């Protein structure tokens, strides 16, 4: 499961940081624990090694059925691995809940202004091998995004869409390179302090989506609550 078979003949000093961490996880699993505590296991690794290990960590629950208590400061790791999140500040529990509801909250304390967006749990409907894309469905519509090597139809995936990566149009667009267009309803406009922008809350089906727009655009489009508009989401901007 952890891809270490080809490392067994090597000495410990011959392993990379990511390989050493995979061996350490395997060693812990051999003890057949009832619970696995992982305290910032990727903190000492560079971005490349983190991306190398994340898929292996994602397989642990499915492969071994062991509950994992995972401590991290990384929103990306939370998004990739967690089912439920507990947020601690100063040693006290201040919030808890599922990943989509917490990370999609504009007051989620673990993220910066530029991290604000929504997290969606989606079903994979179709894989397009010719263009290396896949179509996913959520409770609000369908989206195209780049596929990964191991993804199949009728499975699930989690994705994040940043508020900065969505645009608003009054009508559906025809001559555009953007594959994803969704009809939505404006439900709220939230000015951002000392900024030239506002956060727009729109509803697609049962899903609330956050969109960051300039106040000038907001004025030019004359948007009001209850108005029906369209949003555009760049396929290449969707985060996995």
Explain how this protein is built.
This protein has 240 residues and is α+β, with helices and mostly antiparallel strands. The chain folds into two domains: 106 residues, Rossmann fold (3-Layer(aba) Sandwich); 121 residues, RNA polymerase II/Efflux pump adaptor protein, barrel-sandwich hybrid domain (OB fold (Dihydrolipoamide Acetyltransferase, E2P)), CATH 2.40.50.100. Helices cover 21% and strands 38% of the residues. The strands form four sheets. A five-stranded antiparallel sheet has the order 9-13-10-11-12. Strands 7-6-5-8 form a four-stranded antiparallel sheet. Strand 3 and strand 4 form a beta hairpin. The longest helix is centred in the N-terminal third of the chain and has 18 residues.
Q: How is this structure best summarized?
A:
This protein is 21% helix and 38% strand. The chain is α+β, with helices and mostly antiparallel strands. It has a five-stranded antiparallel β-sheet with strand order 9-13-10-11-12. A four-stranded antiparallel β-sheet has the order 7-6-5-8. A two-stranded parallel ribbon has the order 1-2.
Distance linking N and C termini: 21 Å
Number of domains: 2
- CATH superfamily placement of the largest domain: RNA polymerase II/Efflux pump adaptor protein, barrel-sandwich hybrid domain
Q: At CATH's second level, what is the architecture of the largest domain?
A: Beta Barrel
Number of strands: 13
Bulk shape: globular
Short key terms for the protein model shown above:
single chain, 240 residues, Rossmann fold, 2 domains, 5-stranded antiparallel β-sheet, 4-stranded antiparallel β-sheet, 13 strands
């Amino acid at each position: 499961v952890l891809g270490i078979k080809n490392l067994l003949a090597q000495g410990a000093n011959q392993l990379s940081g990511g390989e050493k961490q995979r061996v350490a996880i395997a060693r812990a699993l051999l003890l057949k624990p009832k619970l696995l505590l992982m305290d910032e296991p990727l903190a000492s690794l560079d971005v490349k090694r983190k991306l190398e290990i994340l898929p292996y960590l994602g397989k642990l629950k499915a492969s071994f059925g062991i509950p994992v208590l995972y401590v991290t400061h990384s929103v990306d790791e939370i998004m990739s691995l967690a089912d439920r999140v507990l947020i601690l500040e100063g040693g006290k529990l201040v919030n808890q809940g599922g990943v989509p509801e917490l990370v999609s909250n504009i007051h989620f304390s673990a993220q910066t202004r530029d991290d604000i967006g929504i997290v969606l749990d989606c079903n994979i409907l179709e894989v397009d091998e010719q263009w290396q894309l896949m179509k996913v469905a959520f409770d609000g519509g369908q989206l195209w995004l780049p596929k990964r090597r191991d993804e199949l139809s009728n499975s699930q995936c989690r994705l994040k869409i940043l508020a900065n990566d969505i645009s608003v149009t009054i009508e559906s667009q025809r001559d555009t390179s953007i594959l994803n267009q969704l009809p939505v309803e404006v439900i709220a406009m939230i000015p951002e302090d000392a900024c030239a922008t506002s956060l727009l809350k729109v509803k697609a089906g049962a899903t609330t989506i956050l969109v960051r727009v300039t106040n000038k655009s907001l004025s030019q489009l004359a948007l009001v609550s209850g108005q029906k508009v369209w949003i555009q989401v760049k396929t290449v901007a969707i985060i996995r």
